[in-house]
Amino acid sequence: MIFSQGVRRLILVMVLVVSCMRAQAQVPALTPPQGLPSLQDVSVEEYRHHLDQLRILVADCGRVVTACDPESVGNDDRVHPLQGQSYAVRYGWLRAVLDDRDPAMHRSRTELLAQAEQRLSEQEEELNHPQFASSLRQEDRLQRDRVLTLKEFQVVHEYSWRERVSAWLSEKLARIFGGAASLGRIAPWFGKTLEWGSLLAAITLLVLWVYRTLDRQRTALGKLTGDVAKREAIEASRAWLELAQIHASNGEWRDAVRCLYWASIVLLEERRTLRRSETRTPREALQLLVVSPQLREPLVAQTAAFERIWYGFANVAQEDYEAALQNYRRVQGVVTGATT
To answer: Would you call 77 helix, strand, or coil by DSSP?
Structure first.
């Protein structure tokens, strides 16, 4: 691998930060519930005053992000009306809306604040028009008690060690990336800068990887065109030459001329002077060669003799074989750099 372990970790951290700023985080419940907040005993007028303060807090949160402080909600209320039983009013829902550490609330903050203001107004409206619940009849109370004794109402959930570990990890991640998300909202340019910086870093690393890959390929091609490639080309061409000599010793001049032609072609293909192909005709091979006259002239003569003898079934003698052998030696000398 090109990249070190540290570079890979840096890329992973940058991707996680950008993902947390661009996507809506799905954070589970961080810790098991530890009980409800304490209640403060208030009168109806004190409760009404508390609702007015909460509406002001919601309005300030809609104007300035830094005003969204769950601690400003205060304690939950136990309202003591002039008539009837006292009742508890909980504000956990409002603390969740004002919690700036919760990324799930950011994109829907405006809508949630409007709903919170409407809910506070409805609570105050209930003070102006109180509704008294009628007492239950004896049979209704018995039915209620029977329902509450059912199994589903007696279950107490106990968190397993996996759930506790998952909650702990989720809380740590929320603290790490919650600060970056808050900074991105206070300074909008920070998110774009971090996003484009991460993208530029990834592109830079990709370009470096491509450069290193191409450099290794150039090194491999350099080795291939060196002494190793030269030996391979000579050995493949020598095999065709030996076969041509065997045919010539048996007086099979036509087959000998054909083997000498392919000895030249294999030599050019192995040295990358000519692209390898199994369907190319001899004339097409000549058209692909743009080389010096020292190489083209013997190959043109050898191609013409090969086409005339092999495809044209012309009469062939030992002189034709000697001429084809001489042209092969010239091609071999130019390609391999050997003296003829």
So the answer is: strand
More confidently predicted of 57 and 216: 57
What CA–CA distances, in Å, run from 87 to 51, 53, 125, 127? 15, 20, 16, 12
Q: Do residues 55 and 231 lie in contact, with contact meaning Cβ atoms separated by under 8 Å?
A: no
Per the domain annotation, does 245 fall within a domain?
Answer: yes
Whether residue 200 is contained in a domain is answered as: no
Closest to 174 (Cα-Cα) out of 31, 313, 292: 31
**Torsions phi, psi for 17 (to 5 deg):** -65, -45
Task: Select the more confidently predicted residue: 248 or 147.
Answer: 248
The range of the structural domain enclosing residue 258 comes to: 228-336
Report pLDDT for 203: 93
Secondary element (H or E) of residue 293: helix 293-306
Residue range 26-35, pLDDT digits in tens: 433 433 344 5
Is 16 a domain residue? Answer: no
Beta strands in the chain (DSSP E): 39-43, 76-80, 87-89
Predicted TM-score of the model (pTM): 0.34
Please state, in angstroms and rounded to a whole number, the distance separating the CA atoms of residues 107 and 116: 16
Number of domains in the chain: 1
What type of residue sits at position 320? D
Of residues 34, 66, 64, the one with CA closest to residue 159: 34
